[in-house]
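in:
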């Protein structure tokens, strides 16, 4: 049974993330949508518990996808869950540069775990979690860019309405 880990902060999850998860779920027997709970360069808008709940709702129709959270090194988490691969989405050239360096570090730390890269569907290439938060905070409509549950949670967070 081939297990892959799709790691990220997913703050918030977008339709681009959902697209990559769906495509990876067709290839691997089991996909773990792994939400990073550790410290990062930015404070998350949603708690890890909220991100897990939102991802579980958005991915509920995929029986071979498990949503989990982790902290520490991604390759250590991948080893713990028996993953053979890490899944990454790439939208832009800057994503490639970022992932290229991380690939080599991960390969040095865990050569037994492959990295698999999915190019983002062009209709989602401009969407990023940071940009989503910026648009919603300014009152913009992101309903075509995030799962419905995420849109509702964003609206509640930014303006208190459901």
């Amino acid at each position: 049974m081939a297990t892959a880990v799709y790691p990220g902060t997913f703050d918030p999850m977008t339709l681009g993330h959902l697209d990559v998860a769906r495509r990876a779920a067709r290839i691997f027997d089991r996909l773990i949508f792994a939400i990073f709970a550790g410290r990062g360069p930015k404070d998350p808008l949603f708690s890890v518990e909220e991100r897990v709940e939102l991802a579980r709702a958005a991915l509920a129709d995929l029986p071979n996808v498990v949503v989990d959270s982790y902290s520490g090194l991604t390759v250590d988490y991948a080893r713990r869950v028996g993953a053979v691969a890490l899944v990454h989405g790439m939208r832009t050239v800057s994503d490639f540069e970022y992932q290229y360096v991380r690939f080599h570090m991960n390969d040095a730390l865990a050569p037994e775990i492959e990295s698999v890269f999915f190019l983002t569907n062009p209709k989602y290439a401009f969407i990023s979690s940071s940009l989503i938060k910026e648009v919603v905070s300014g009152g913009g409509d992101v309903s075509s860019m995030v799962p419905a549950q995420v849109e509702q949670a964003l609206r509640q967070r930014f303006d208190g309405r459901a």
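note: Strands lie at 3-8, 30-36, 65-70, 85-90, 114-119.
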